[in-house]
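User: I'll paste a sequence; please echo it back and then give the predicted structure.

Assistant: Echoing your sequence first, then the prediction.
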Amino acid sequence: MSDLAKTPGTSAGTPETSGTSAKTPGASAETPQVSTGKTAEAPAAPLPAVDPRLLVREEGLKGYWSEFTRKVRGGELGSLPVLVGLIVIAIVFQLQNSNFLSASSVANIAVYSSGLGIMAVGIVFVLLLGEIDLSVGSLAGVGAAVCVVLNVRHGWNDWAAVLAAVFCGMVIGALHGFFFAKIGMPAFVVTLAGFLGWSGLQEWVIGGEGSINTPSGGIVENLTNYFFEDKAVAYGVALVAVLAYAFSLLVDSRRRGAAGLPARPTSEILLRTGVIAVLCFAVAYVLNEPSGARGMPLALVLFLAVLVLADFVARRTAFGRQVFAVGGNPEAARRAGIGVDRIRITVFALSGMLGAFGGLFIASLSGGATKGLGGGNTLMLVIAAAVIGGTSLFGGRGKVWSALLGMIVIQSIQQGLNMIGMANAIQYMITGAVLLAAVVIDSVSRRTQKTAGRA
């Protein structure tokens, strides 16, 4: 009974306090012992985690469809609602009037979308901050008034007058940003005061005449009245757009691959480029129809140029990333070393500049600068275009191309209702309903993302 190692039920391999242990049949000689200091063998290395986006691409079309449905269920709708809306609008109005998708109708939509669309680009940047600019309509009127008065009454060169108008809008926008960022006034109040004050400045600049016609053949008149009749221009613009899109995808894929991040395969790049190519060349073909439009409108070319430049700034520069950061969480952005005040002032200056530039397009369409230019529903249409296109009213989420998509939706509705003889009152009500639907979709999308843990 004194030999505990031979007691029935006691393991012979149990460590003893004396530092020795007995070996028993079946016991491994490599069993770690506390007293001897031996270490256990390292467990097998776990398999490396695989990025789910890589699995999606490995699964082919099925993987992309699964990823798409997952995003939709998670509230990441992107541009899906507006694209579906455009398809529905095209089908409904084409059934009502077979000329809705004709060359002249498409050209009208493009021209009338350009000026307001350029203004909407500035509003997109403001909305990305989670703020609002109510003065953009008044700045359009001031820009048109300054340009035409300098050109007609004071004999300034066309280019000098245009640059002066755009610079004036930029300075006014920066002033709004200063009061908002430095003084701490709400952007809503600052720009509302600007809406009233700059409307008065607009009337004062024009004077008692009430309106001033743009010079015939001048830059302002040609903004919306000049068309490139050579068919090669429309197809050339389409080709440049497709090549630029493909190049951006390739560069992005190469950069992500070099950083060890999931990148789009060549097949996906070719598919996306093919879809864009079909759309671009289809529009070019319609605009070149001899029985309809007069070719590619200059207004559309300028609008696209502004969109491409603004999109590059928003997605490819430090300034653009800082705008998203400030809109997402200003305090976190400030702690990260971002000059929040500088970003806010710059964004409002950009909004003012594009607002004044867009006002020149409105003056071109109306034939001159008037005291009422930029009034009426101009402000509402510009904000509606940005929101309908997919830019969130809550800040930190959206794309510059929202301005194009949203404005095409609005102008398509107005064009279609005009072609079937619908009254303006009905047009306003329908546009308001579309805007409300866009905000509802945005709100529901954000709530769904929070529920799915993606907000």
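The domain at 85-229+294-448 is CATH 1.10.3470 (ABC transporter involved in vitamin B12 uptake, BtuC). The radius of gyration is 31 Å.
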